[in-house]
Amino acid sequence: MTIDEATEAVSEETLVARAQAGDRDAFEALVARHVDAVWRVVWRVLRHRQDTEDVVQEVFLSAYRNLPGFRGEAGFGTWLHRIAFTRALNHVERKAEKASRAARSLEDESLREPQTPHASPFEELAASELAARVKRCLERLPAAWRAILTLREAEGKPYEAIAATLEIALGTVRSRLARARDALKTCVEEEPS
Amino acid sequence: MNERERRDELLAAYLDGELPAGEAAAFERELEQDAALRAKLDAWRALGRAVREEEVPAPPADLTERITRRLGETPRKAASPKRPRRARRPWLVPAAAAVVTAGLLGVVLWRAEPPGVESVPKLLQEETIGASESAPPSDTTGEDSPKTGEIVTSELRAESGMVRDVPPPAPETSAAPVSPEAGFLAPAEAPAAEKKVAHAPPSITEEVKRELESLGYAAEAGEALPAQKERSREDVAVKRSEAELAPPAAAAADAAKKAKVAADSKRAGAEDMERRAQRERARRSEYGEAEERYFQEWSVLRGPPQDERWAWAAREQEDAEALLRKTVASLDGTLKRPVQGEPAWVVTLARAEDVARLRYALSKAGSLSMNTKDERAKGLHLIVRVAPPTEE
Questions:
Q1: What is the value of ipTM here, to two decimals?
Q2: To the nearest whole number, what is the mean pLDDT of chain A?
Q3: Predicted model pTM
Q4: B290, A168: Cβ pair inside 8 Å?
Q5: What CA–CA distance (Å, rounded) separates B166 from B184?
């Protein structure tokens, strides 16, 4: 059995307990276990490589600093996720992304009722075209909406877990998801090929 | 929430399997009859897949190493009990507290006027006094339940922030301090005598209570209205007079006992108030504040140039006004706009029970609920007054 395999075999609770007691190796093992997952969610929210690198490091350093206070009410992974989303969203605020994105404004279409109901054109779009449009549109959505779409669509989290991670009410999860999806749909429909 | 938002939220929950079975079945029937809704469901599904399958770049190979290298220079905190969350916008906390406090007391709020605009409360004061003068003399005492001729101001939709009571207007001579929080003017504590004329205290009849309860406002119906609070204050005053007439020793003991009871009650009241304020702060920070920010952010992102960003809000407001006119007309009421350009209306209703009807109608109005999103920017204040329609 290699060292890596041995570490893998140790349960997460044990690693957390050891890390809480000051064992740095145990914490490093936790980093190795979770770094990819944290990277994925942070990137999905920030969509910027350098920023994601910075924030992922911040997430683990923050977890390390606060580990003695971690009481294990949620799993370590859930706790890390919560830190990751909070940090990523704070990062967006700090960078005043809002102002820079406002410059790339679109027409005010999402706020109008569609005049006539029309079939979604998505079936007609090639998968690669849809993916490209979704990618461009996700970059333009408010980060909080990207965060909730990430949790629901990419991570498949139930509403209750989303509410806990983002520290919002269940009703807010529902309404925010609806708004985010609607905005994404409107944007994708309008996005030029 | 308008109809479109309601359906979108149901659609989201349905798509995610988060609707209870009964609701899901009902929504499926709705789906069967609505091709546009089905198209949206398909679109959301396709988008969800696209989001899920979006390629995420791999992290740099040395990321773990970079993190672990920095662990050595990171001090660790000692274990401590969990602290409450820090408010994102500390300046909003006193504002929210002020709003909640005023709302609980049934007191009236008014948005601060921009410089140069004549004070709406002042105009309303004139209106209110005028109406009370035209009312039968018995009504000016404000002791009875509302009936024809009595003035009732009512918070229509405190929850949505849509409609607010009118403050009992401060007499011009009283330089009442203005609360700077949240851009609201705190109601001035008017002398009691003037209060009775300028703001005949509302009370709630069993009939209105039943009406409210039947409309799903049980909690509100059960809540003491300003008039009831006013009466309880009077009760305290009467009891105090009785105590003053008692023999000195007994009075002293009684006074000490009452002071203790009053202190306990005050403390309990303050704690209760604080708990409710905390809940309201949490609600606002969770939904009101954050959601509106995101929504506005999106509207700004997608909106026309910066200075026109509220154009859509103005459109909504027009819709709201149209609906308001229709509703008030159906209740044989009248609608006045005291200050041109200021989005505030005075609604005059002939019957007290129509307050509940208007409240219900407005709460169901999608356009009005939409409008509340921009209240901070545009403001929409309704004042309901129950009085005989003025003969014009």
A1: 0.81
A2: 81
A3: 0.46
A4: yes
A5: 12
